[in-house]
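Record 1 of the preview.
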Amino acid sequence: MKKLSLILMMICLLLSGCQYPDDDVDMPEPQKPVSELIQGTWNHISTTGTVRDDAGNVIQESTSYQQDYDVYSIDEENVIIYNNPEHHDNYGGESILSESGGKHYIEWNDKINGYAKYEITAISDTKMTWEMNDSLAAISDQYSEQAAELKPNRLYIKQEFTKRIKHPLEDKVKGAWLTDTTTKVTYDTAGNIIKKEGYPNETYAYDIFTDYLSINLNEQAQETINILYSLEDRDGKTYLEYDDDNTGTTVINEIISLSDDKMIWERKMSPTVSYIIELTYLF
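->
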């Protein structure tokens, strides 16, 4: 009896020794439901089409990366797809989220591509993947004809998205900004300023909206370039960036100062040359 009591006491001591105070335990965050994670604005990044034979071997595969504006706005009942930043043209429709066999699906019917149904194979707060296997492709208005032509091979489609997250400076940079002055700064190899000199303004003004900006090359706005931009954070600095189709390069403007009525960019052209662009807020 004494031996049994001793064994029970030892078990209790062992069990108590394995328990930790609640304050020291980091409980993992519970996974949000798909119906919650999917809501928001998503940038469509790429589409991958794969052709497989009956054994599942890849015969052909290609990925096209989205060059133009293609944004999916998703709420509890709708998928709305925008093809331009002004949101003038859109398509999509009422959507249905469903679950079957532990898999999650989204389907809708829109005026451009008709009916579509995808399996949501991955989703987080920042990224999402949809996949359409050969069975879903066969009932898709956009891909059913192509899937039928490929038989007995099978068509698979994968769509990749990233969530559009509002930058803290987004509201402050939006508006019409007049280009006041441009200053060319020359540095030595050690980063010391050698010379500052006035430089002709390349643009008259910038109209900055959500996701895109209009570059007005002259006061009459007869020459205007509409282009997508992004606000990026690196090493504690914020940059306004956009692609220049004429040069095939990315224009990178570090926002070195921003107030209600003034904004200053530094545009580095090389390790020894940069341009300081001062802007005034118009409206």
